[in-house]
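Anyone up for a design puzzle?
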């Protein structure tokens, strides 16, 4: 039985990790930390988990030395994970759900997030997108779980990038996210009254997920591939719909594009290529680890639409998928369930 610890377990990603791992046949959560709720039973904070974690109390994340586990999930905020991950690695393999170890270049991290205090680990961390890095994830000591927006964008564009088909400077990524992407902390901007009936772009030209998307698409393409990324907030609790546009170096027939995506994803359990003429809906992936893709091409112009649940394939589900790979389990374990379509 894999013993799992969750640091920062009282946020939305922590809740999703607890929910998914509650029925995992090969893993058991032995530690869940929260400064705010230390000493409080988990079901008291999350009543939906009654009957699953009745004997588990939230503990203080400062007590790192007392943690005895095989895998540690760090669901702490950006900047906070880098304080605990080096210590956790002394005893555990680690999956970090923050952005602290996703960027390979220290200068890029410093430019977007501020000074990195554990930069020596950046080169070691494996980017945890199984569809691209499954072999590297298997033997990794530290996995950097991808961001939610990058997951939706990279899976949409990677097959084209890998074939060198995307014209540099042509990529536009338009993404819409549910409010849970802002986290569980109290915030006026994400409160019901502010969000209900609204629909807005935010951090235009300055969102921190931009360098992550560019890094991974450039690695797939084997060269620089800049993008223009604009996120939007929509009044739903969860889900991301991304529409990616690009110019190609040569025209593609619809059948050729479909063959390309089939070759990339036909063996990927959690990527579902929709029938020709069909496009994703976030309601059809809700609560699941699936990424749905829809394709459109007209000459050398392509549009790819992707849909994920930002808390599952965009965060905690993908983290459990990575854990399964790291421990030699079927990566579908505890994840292969139908979406909540209503």
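Challenge accepted. My sequence:
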């Amino acid at each position: 039985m894999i013993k799992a610890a969750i640091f920062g377990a009282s946020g939305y990603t922590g809740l999703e990790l607890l929910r998914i791992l509650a029925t995992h046949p090969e893993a058991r959560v032995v530690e869940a930390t929260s400064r705010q709720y230390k000493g409080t039973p988990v079901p008291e904070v999350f009543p939906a988990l009654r009957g699953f974690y009745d004997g588990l109390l939230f503990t203080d994340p400062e007590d790192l030395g007392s943690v005895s586990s095989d895998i540690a999930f760090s669901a702490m905020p950006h900047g906070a994970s880098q304080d605990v991950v080096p210590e956790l690695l002394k005893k555990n393999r680690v999956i970090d759900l923050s952005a602290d170890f996703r960027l390979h270049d220290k200068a890029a991290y410093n430019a977007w997030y501020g000074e990195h205090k554990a930069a020596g680990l950046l080169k070691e961390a494996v980017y945890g997108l199984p569809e691209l890095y499954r072999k590297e994830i298997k033997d990794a000591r530290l996995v950097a779980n991808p961001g939610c927006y990058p997951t939706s964008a990279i899976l949409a564009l990677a097959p084209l990038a890998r074939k060198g088909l995307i014209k540099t400077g042509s990529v536009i990524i338009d993404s819409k996210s549910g409010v849970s992407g802002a986290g569980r902390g109290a915030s006026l901007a994400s409160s019901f009254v502010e969000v209900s009936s609204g629909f807005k772009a935010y951090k235009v030209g300055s969102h921190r997920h931009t360098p992550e998307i560019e890094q991974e698409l450039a690695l797939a393409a084997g060269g620089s591939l800049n993008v223009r990324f604009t996120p939007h907030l929509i009044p739903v609790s969860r889900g991301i719909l991304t529409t990616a546009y690009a110019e190609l170096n040569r025209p593609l027939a619809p059948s050729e594009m479909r063959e390309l995506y089939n070759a990339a994803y036909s063996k990927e359990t959690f990527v579902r290529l929709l029938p020709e003429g069909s496009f994703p809906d976030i309601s059809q992936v809700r609560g699941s680890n699936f990424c749905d893709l829809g394709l459109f091409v007209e000459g050398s112009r392509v549009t790819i639409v992707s849909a994920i649940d930002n808390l599952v394939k965009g965060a905690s589900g993908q983290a459990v998928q990575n854990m399964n790979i790291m421990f030699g389990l079927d990566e579908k374990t505890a994840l292969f369930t139908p979406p909540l379509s209503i």
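A detail worth pointing out: Residues 2-124 form a domain with the Rossmann fold fold (CATH 3.40.50.720).
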